[in-house]
Structures are given as structure tokens and as C-alpha cells.
Amino acid sequence: MSDNTPVAQAPTGDRSLMERERIYMKGHIITWALSVASACLVGWAWVYTHPTPKLAAVNIQSIVQEHTQALTAAIKPDTPKEEQEAAIRRAAEFGQRLDAALAVTAKECGCAIVNAAAIVAMPSAPQPIADITERVRAQLQPGLPGASKPAGG
User: Fold this and answer.
1) Spatial distance between the Cα atoms of 141 and 113, rounded to a whole number of angstroms
2) What's the whole-model pTM score?
3) I need a surface site. Which of 7, 25, 108, 135 has the fewest CB within 10 A?
4) How far apart are CA 104 and CA 144, in angstroms?
């Protein structure tokens, strides 16, 4: 092979082959970058507009059991009839007060409340379901700030 072999050159006035390939690759890179940016934007918009619902657990069974024990203690054969009737009225109002306390607590935390007995397994991280039983108990206690008042009194 000699150094005098003719090299094929692009016709005059035409871009060279290397320049055309560079422009062609630039187009692919720009298209790829815009596609990735669009996918990221759509993903962010989806997460922003479809947030994961917040959940909180309440041990309703323990609250009802405590109320039942208090009611049982209030209704004894030696208890005056007026006190027994008042205890029966409180028992009748308890369901409504519990519903109201759950509604107020759900509104305060901005979350859905589930019965703790319905939870089969709970993750330890990153966001376990919060137990807000004590807050509901506080809502049910008459005379406490922020507590719901009984319907009859």
C-alpha cells in the first residue's frame, strides 16, 4: 500500500460524513434526554396528585371494654335507682360519643382510622401505622379540653 492512494471525499458543498453522524447522534441524545425528563415529570405529578392515604389505628375493643367495666360497676343491686338510670343513659349515649370522637380525631389527624383488631401485620419501618387510641380516649372524657360533650348534658 502506498501513501498515494486516493481517498474518497465528499462532494464539495456537502457536509462531511462525520459531521452528519454527529448531528444525527445529537438528535438521538436530545430525544432521549427529553423522554427521560418527561417520564420524571409525569412520575412526580402522579405521586403528587395521588398521595398515599394516612392510616391510624384505634383499639376500639379496649375502649368499649373499659366503658363496659365502668357501666358494670355503676349498676349494682345496692346502687340507687337514679344512678342506675343515669348509667344506662350514659351507656346509650356511648356509641354516639364514640362515633363523634372517632370523627373528630380523624379530622384532626387527616387520616383514615381503622380498628386495631383489623390489623393482621404492621410494618416496623418506614412509616408504621400510628396508634391513636389515647387521643380517642381523651375525646371521650367529659370535661377535658377538646373532649366531646355527652349529648344529654
Assistant:
1) 19
2) 0.57
3) 7
4) 14
